[in-house]
Amino acid sequence: MSYPPPRYLGEDGEVNATFRPADTPAELTAASGNRTHHLATQASTGGEFGLYRIDMGPRSPGPSTHFHRSISESFFILSGTMQLFGGESWVTAQAGDFLYVPVGGLHAFRNPSDEPASMLLLFSPGAPREEYFEQVAEMAQRGGEEFRDFLVRHDSFFVDEPPA
Predict the structure, then answer these.
(1) How far is CA 126 from CA 24, 40, 44, 89, 108, in A?
(2) What would the pLDDT profile of 17-51 be if each residue is shown by its tens digit?
(3) What is d(CA 2, CA 128) in angstroms, rounded to the nearest whole number?
(4) Sequence-distant (≥ 6) Cβ neighbours of residue 9 within 8 angstroms
(5) C-beta of residue 80 within 8 angstroms of C-beta of residue 62
(6) 3-state SS class at 110
(7) Which of 12, 58, 70, 124 has its CA 20 to 30 A from that of 131?
(8) Where are the domains of the chain?
(9) What is the pLDDT of residues 70-87, one digit of tens each?
(10) What integer is the mean pLDDT of 85-105?
(11) Band of residue 9 on the pLDDT scale cut at 50, 70, 90
(12) The three-state (H, E, C) secondary structure of 37-62, written as one string
């Protein structure tokens, strides 16, 4: 295994880092109270990855079992307790636990506890997930063909629910 080919060919480096203070408000607050922080988007990373912090309130269901055809998804629990589904069974994850789901891997997550929880979601390569996060609840309520098209456009393919 080797490093990828160079993409920066300059001699002196560049000043191009981006800093986001911890107290930056969430870009999205859902009706449920869940918050999504757009830490690094497809646009800000040039498509290399997308990184989001998800703050879930108590008893938040999260998405049902699904997979992606073009992106991997990783979960890192920051605080609280989450349940993560990695294709075969649900695991109870707590601060410091990590789950990597390769392209095509079945996965789901939820916060069934009585306490809030927070996690990082990493998508690679970067994908325009912001529109998905912002519109999925509304589109699910609409349902039908429009919702199915929305899911396909956002590389989200849902399957039958796994056993609890």
Answers:
(1) 21, 9, 9, 27, 19
(2) 999 999 999 999 988 889 999 999 999 999 999 99
(3) 28
(4) none
(5) no
(6) strand
(7) 58
(8) 29-127
(9) 999 999 999 999 999 999
(10) 97
(11) very high
(12) EEEECHHHHCCCCEEEEEEECCCECC
- Structural tokens at position 126: 């970067």
Output the six-digit token pair for 52. 């989001």
Please state the pTM of the whole predicted model: 0.91
CB 50 within 8 A of CB 122: yes
Counting other chains too, the contacts that 133-138 makes at CB distance below 8 Å and 24 or more residues apart are 133/28, 133/36, 133/52, 134/28, 136/63, 137/30, 137/31
Which residue is associated with the tokens 């927070």?
118
Tokens of 43: 């646009």
Give residue-wise pLDDT tens across range 123-161. Answer: 999 998 999 988 988 898 899 999 999 999 999 999 976
CATH level 2 (architecture), domain 29-127: Sandwich (2.60)
